[in-house]
Design a protein that fits this description.
Elements (H helix, E strand, L loop, with lengths): L17 H10 L4 E4 L5 E4 L4 H20 L4 E5 L4 E2 L5 E2 L3 E5 H5 L3 H5 L8 E5 L6 H13 L4 E6 L4 E6 L5 E4 L3 E3 L8 E3 L5
Parallel strand pairs: 7-8
Antiparallel strand pairs: 1-2, 3-6, 4-5, 6-7, 8-9, 9-10, 11-12
Length: 194
């Protein structure tokens, strides 16, 4: 297959079927691709080095906790996509699925885009991210079954906490975040992140 490069203007959207999305994602494993419930293809460019540094802190803290509590669930980094109940295929910067829900999947489902919404999702806003776009993404995760979500916004030095069935809580310059009853015992240090 010959690789072609093209630029898609921001005001043009490209819609693909679920099968087309799977084929495009398989052929472009180095790209961070997502698909909305109505079929819009989302191509996420690489983040800057500073966002990458912040994100690895979030992911590694979650992974260390998840490994120590492996009977509770499984952690994922930003390239792990999930097929949400709405039909969208989305990936969070960091996410976690309870052990019971993960173990209920077949091996084939685990190797593809797992057909479920993570219990927990975290998004880190980079300089190029639109805050409203990330807020929409967080609401989408919550409406698809996520129980807890964090939108970490270093530019405004705040965190938006999303909980299923509740209003968004905004914390100004927090030092740490609690995993509450979803990630029991997990605390994320925001040192160097905010």
């Amino acid at each position: 297959m010959q690789t072609l490069t093209f630029e898609l203007p921001r005001d043009i959207t490209l819609h693909v079927t679920d099968a087309e999305f799977a084929a495009i994602a398989a052929a472009n494993r180095d790209l961070r691709l997502e698909r909305t419930a109505d079929g819009e293809l989302i191509v996420n460019p690489p983040t800057g080095s500073e966002s990458s540094r912040r994100n690895i802190s979030i992911t590694s803290q979650l992974w260390i906790w998840a490994e120590a509590n492996e009977d509770l669930g499984v952690a994922f980094e930003s390239s792990g996509g999930f097929k949400l109940p709405s039909g969208a295929t989305r990936a969070a910067d960091a996410s976690w699925v309870s052990r019971e829900r993960w173990d209920a999947l077949t091996q084939e489902e685990k190797e593809g885009f797992a057909p479920l919404c993570p219990d927990f999702v975290a998004e880190l806003r980079s300089k190029s991210d639109s805050l409203s776009t990330l807020q929409d993404k967080m609401r989408n995760f919550m409406s698809n079954g996520a129980r807890l979500g964090w939108l970490i916004d270093p530019q405004n030095q705040r965190v938006e906490i999303y909980r299923r069935g509740q209003e968004v809580e905004i914390l100004e310059q927090p030092k740490q975040l609690s995993g509450e009853d979803v990630l029991s015992g997990f605390t994320l240090s925001l040192r160097g992140i905010l």
